[in-house]
Amino acid sequence: MAKHYVMVIDLGACIGCDTCTVACKQENNLPTGVAWTQLITVDSFNKNENIQNLRRNYPHVKQDFLPLSCQHCVDGPCVDVCPTSATFRRPEDGIVMQDPSLCIGCRYCMVVCPFTTVRIYSDSQPSFTLPFPTGGNPIGHRANTVEKCTFCAHRIEQGRQPACVEACPTQARTFGDLNDPESEVSEKLRSKPHFRLLIDKATEPSVYYLP
């Protein structure tokens, strides 16, 4: 049976430290200003509350965090619209890849993706803060291409975990094969409430969130 790799993110454990973003950037040698993983900050108080109410509630206020990157959809429209097959879903494990050597920069994948900002388009030659490459991803960055999270496929092929999973200080991220009933991701999704983003779009995302 083919594998189906998924990511399970425990929002209750996420502390918004952005370690996942930094680890992703380092592992994939991302250019200046480019991030494949981002952290959305969500205020938990009612947006319609006035400042007096907020002051009364202090210090009992908090913020919630939503880590966001490519959702590696089972039925992602990005794969269907790519004219050069630069975007494709690997049949052996379900990871949605983006081959920059085939990308012509048409950005059709960005247009049809319901998860805005998970893809990055660079229209200029990439620049880097450090004078040497970092991380283990052999991908070459170039201008006029679209890039995105690959679930660290190069690490998976070595039997390792994605960089964001390995680096998370609170172990908020779990990665594994959903088709393996004994895997940790399968056990968590069987035993805990969870949700996926924009399920009404019928793309079948492979990233699950525990509230």
Low-confidence stretches: none
Q: Tell me, what is the CATH class?
A: Alpha Beta
Q: Please give the domain count.
A: 1
Describe the largest sheet.
3 strands, mixed
Shape: globular
CATH overall fold name: Alpha-Beta Plaits
Total DSSP E strands: 9
CA distance, first residue to last residue: 30 Å
Mean pLDDT: 92
Rounded to an integer in angstroms, the radius of gyration calculated over CA atoms is 18 Å
- Please tally the helical runs, counting DSSP H or I stretches of 4 or more residues: 7
For the largest sheet, list the strands in their spatial order.
Answer: 8-1-9
**Beta-strand residue percentage:** 15-25%
Write the layout of secondary structure elements.
Layout: E1 5-10, H1 19-27, E2 38-43, H2 51-57, E3 63-68, H3 77-81, E4 87-89, E5 96-98, H4 108-112, E6 119-122, E7 145-148, H5 153-156, H6 163-167, E8 173-177, H7 184-191, E9 207-210
Parallel strand pairs: 1-9
Antiparallel strand pairs: 1-8, 2-3, 4-5, 6-7
Structure description:
The chain is of the alpha+beta class and 211 residues long. It has a single domain, classed as Alpha-Beta Plaits. Helix content is 20%, strand content 19%. It is built from seven helices and nine strands; from the N terminus they run E-H-E-H-E-H-E-E-H-E-E-H-H-E-H-E. Strands 8-1-9 form a three-stranded mixed sheet. The longest helix is centred in the first third of the chain and has 9 residues. It is globular. It starts with a strand and ends with a strand.
